[in-house]
Amino acid sequence: MADSSLVVEGRAKNRKNAKKEKARSRRVFLGFAAIGLVILVFSAYFLWFGLPTNALTQDAPQLRLKGQELYQAKKYLRASKYFERYTVLKPRDWRARELLADTYWRIGDTDQAFNQLKLADQQAGFQADRQYKLGLLAQLVDEDSEAVTYLRKSVQSRPKSLLFRVELAKAYVKTEQFD
Fold first, then answer.
1. % helix / strand / coil in the chain, to the nearest 5?
2. Which CATH number applies to 54-175?
3. Residue 80's pLDDT band (cuts 50, 70, 90)
4. How many CA atoms lie within 13 A of 28 on its CB side?
5. What average pLDDT does the segment 154-160 reach?
6. 62-80 as b/e, with b when 16 or more CB fall inside 10 Å?
């Protein structure tokens, strides 16, 4: 009789231990699931937004210097990446934006070059050479009326520049403005 009560007690203890073990394994599983979810969220964040600049241990001036070095080495595609990151950190630096526009122009992305140079022109103010570049880029992106406007401003600023006048004449012919 004592043996049967011990067997019943043993079974009860085994059931309690089984329930505890099941609860413990459930907690372990949920813990791993939570850790996996956190890892998934962080990896998605880094894939979408990239590494933060501080994580790369490069601050804004270093990004600009690296971009300028690559630009001088004629590695325009890589330089554009550094200038892009720099202009995100320093959006009011029109000189860097002008360099970014020039790198886009050199790699053949005229739409981006035109947009970046327009932003630089808005931030920096009037400059005849920049207006000339804007006119040339506007012609390349088929914004002929804007090209005429920019080139006309550059010619008004430097009336003796033959180069500016020739490009303005080409823009007039393209838009069929013969006045």
1. 85, 0, 15
2. 1.25.40.10
3. very high
4. 6
5. 91
6. ebbebbbebbeeeebeebb
